[in-house]
Amino acid sequence: MDPHPIAGVVWYAIGRFYEAQDGSLQDLGYFAHLGGIEPLFNGPHHGEGSAFFTFRAEPFTARKFQNGDLSVSLDTTGSFTLYLNREPCGDFSRPETFSRGEPIATFQRLSSVVGTSVGPLGTNLFSAALRSSTTFHFQGRSWNLERLLPHGITQLGVASTTPMTPPTGFKTMTPFVGSAMAVGGNVRWP
């Protein structure tokens, strides 16, 4: 697995943002593309219930304010982990199912994330450094995301502002997609 070209898309993430009763946030989901690893789904039906690769963020907080008709949030730095689920079981009504697999990599957001929404859509952009990675075996091959993403990723996310019915224990849940590119060069992360 060679490092991905700089600015080449390395993953497409499909997920949901959850706001807990205490106001903390987390995001979780699965991958529709992950740097050439295949297959990503167990069987012909693509969705969270058949995804071999999932992710889940550690809970974080956000400050929210208005700028005209733009709703802005500043998310604190934090980490998220990618998982290999040999027996896929993701279920958006049960967030814990996205972190049941084998941890294969952890990324750290290194600055605040600015999210902006207007009308029915929201966007965000962030970079994250790869903090840890482990070799895993999948479909007869050995993989390690450190070889694919040695310097981390930059992800652009698009979300709906229309809330969905959240699972028990959460106030809100909204869907999003994220497209990430490999960070290139010897970036100096703090």
Structure description:
With 190 residues, this protein is mostly beta strands. The protein has one domain (9-182). Helix content is 2%, strand content 53%. It contains one helix and 13 strands, in the order E-E-E-E-E-E-E-E-E-E-E-H-E-E. It has one helix at residues 145-148, and strands spanning 9-20, 25-34, 53-57, 62-67, 70-75, 78-84, 102-109, 113-118, 121-133, 136-138, 141-143, 153-160, 170-182. An eight-stranded antiparallel barrel has the order 1-2-3-6-7-9-12-13. A two-stranded antiparallel ribbon has the order 10-11. A hairpin with a 2-residue loop joins strand 10 (136-138) and strand 11 (141-143). The model has no long low-confidence stretch (mean pLDDT 92).
Could you list some keywords that capture this structure?
eight-stranded antiparallel beta barrel; mainly beta; 190 residues
In short:
With 190 residues, the protein is an all-beta fold.
Question: Layout of helices and strands, plus pairs?
Answer:
Layout: E1 9-20, E2 25-34, E3 53-57, E4 62-67, E5 70-75, E6 78-84, E7 102-109, E8 113-118, E9 121-133, E10 136-138, E11 141-143, H1 145-148, E12 153-160, E13 170-182
